[in-house]
Amino acid sequence: MFNSVNNPFNRPIESSTSSDSGKREKEQQQEKKEKKFLEQEEPDEVKIGGRPILTEDEIRSMVNDYIKKIKQEHENEPKVAEKADKFLAKFDIKKFMKRNPNLTAPDFYMVMYSETEYITK
Fold first, then answer.
1. What is the C-alpha separation between 93 and 113, in angstroms, rounded?
2. Among 117, 18, 102, 115, which residue's Cα sits nearest to residue 54?
3. 108, 62 in Cβ contact below 8 A?
């Protein structure tokens, strides 16, 4: 529209009737906000339901309760009680937590079921 003859200083020409300048500024600000939002690092880990991660003491007490429950359910079977006692004697909380990091309560019960399934058979 304008060439170097009409605009000898190569400056942007703004007219007082132009309403696009306000829109452009808003668009630029919005783009800057979006860039900042996209550049922020977010953790990839998603916690379903926001359940808290269990501590060592909580896991230890839950294991004891879980084994007690197995023994109560099978109180007429002495072999189950023996296996359950052996499991508790061999249970190492540090190894368990290392193999299963960041356990929540539902995760704990799934892991315990798979690790103690042999006790009742």
1. 16
2. 102
3. yes
Q: Write the CB contacts of 56 (distance below 8 Å, at least 6 apart in sequence).
A: 93, 97
Dihedral (CA of 91, 93, 95, 98) sign = positive
CA distance linking residue 121 with residue 76, whole number of Å? 14
Q: What is the pLDDT of residues 63-118, one digit of tens each?
A: 999 999 999 999 999 999 999 999 999 999 999 999 999 899 999 999 999 999 99
Overall pTM > 0.70 = no
Quote the CA–CA distance of 39 and 87 in Å, as a whole number.
Answer: 49
